[in-house]
Amino acid sequence: MVLLPTDRMDSLFSPRCVWVNGPIIVGAGPSGLAVAACLREQGVPYVILERADCIASLWQKRTYDRLKLHLPKQFCELPRMPFPDHYPEYPTRRQFIDYLEDYAARFEIKPEFNSTVLSARYDETSGLWRVVTSAPAAGGDMEYIGRWLVVATGENAESVVPDIPGLEGFDGKVTHVSDYKSGEAYRGKSVLVVGCGNSGMEVSLDLSDHGARPAMVVRDAVHVLPREVLGKSTFELAVLLMRWLPLWIVDKIMVLLAWLVLGDLAKLGLRRPTGAGPLELKETHGRTPVLDYGALARIRAGDIAVVPAVKRFAKGSQVELADGRVLSFDAVVLATGYRSNVPQWLQVNSHSNKLTTVPLQQQHWSESDQSMSN
């Protein structure tokens, strides 16, 4: 990239502009790193913009201690560099971070950290993308200009906090799962976990492991699948079947296997969606199936309670549920997901073919509230 002086091409560029000879990549998570590595291998210049001060900030700063990949490592490795042989089949959070840092070092990926994208628009007159960032460390706003824009920010940029009546008046501690680290801080306490996705299930399990009394809110129907069937990853099995069978048949096989392995979950308060299968729901609505590896056993044992939707938070520490019950809790963990922040800054027009978005294969079954996979 080349920093243009303010007295050149004033008709096209504003002050503090950077011309990028190759793609402008937004996001230094796994997808952004993979794109950068492949471009470098082909000798293509690029710039990678990252709003945090490190790579893979979701994994480094907003994940809980016990987090592991839910998918086998061969489905989660980045291009041109496999996981180390000594890594387990499901690497831990720390192992995955180490892998990503080694990946960035190997391919000499050096993002522009602390660069928050404020806007990105395609200039039809010049045929170029203009990406404006807030970069206090660089002395103010910067504008990056180039022919290509790659959006690699993932689905989990912003925490989603639901608007539940009375939540702001709850006496106990309220934490979004992005700030949750360990159940140790909740030992001996009753905790309401709002959300039953992969994060909700795993946080409930973690709380139970640390001697807390979790109650998990299950508002909607959800597909729960075993993480493995006969020692084989459920995801791997689905990928294999998809090579030969249409999606709707694979969905039926997945649901049948889940029923055979996990039993009738309706008895536990977990309803399966009617009609659409787990793969179809992920494909059409972005709703990820939950992969179980321990939470259901705790629910059956009574260590994790399942409760219906929250109607409102009453005075003090009381919570009124949809079925009319009023229960008291010491704390609340909101496992209510994330959303993309791309619509806030990306100005899309008829030239969106100049834009590339980059999902990774492992995100297909990732929990939308915890990046990649849990």
Automatic annotation (TrEMBL):
Its cofactor is FAD. Belongs to the FMO family. It comes from the Eukaryota. Keywords: FAD, Flavoprotein, Monooxygenase, Oxidoreductase. Its EC number is 1.-.-.-. This is Flavin-containing monooxygenase. It is an enzyme of class 1 (oxidoreductase). The keyword Flavoprotein applies. InterPro entries: Auxin_biosynth/cation_transpt (IPR050982), FAD/NAD-bd_sf (IPR036188), Flavin_mOase (IPR000960), Flavin_mOase-like (IPR020946). Pfam families: FMO-like. It comes from Panicum virgatum (Blackwell switchgrass). GO terms for molecular function: flavin adenine dinucleotide binding; indole-3-pyruvate monooxygenase activity; N,N-dimethylaniline monooxygenase activity; NADP binding. The keyword Oxidoreductase applies. It catalyses: indole-3-pyruvate + NADPH + O2 + H(+) = (indol-3-yl)acetate + CO2 + NADP(+) + H2O.
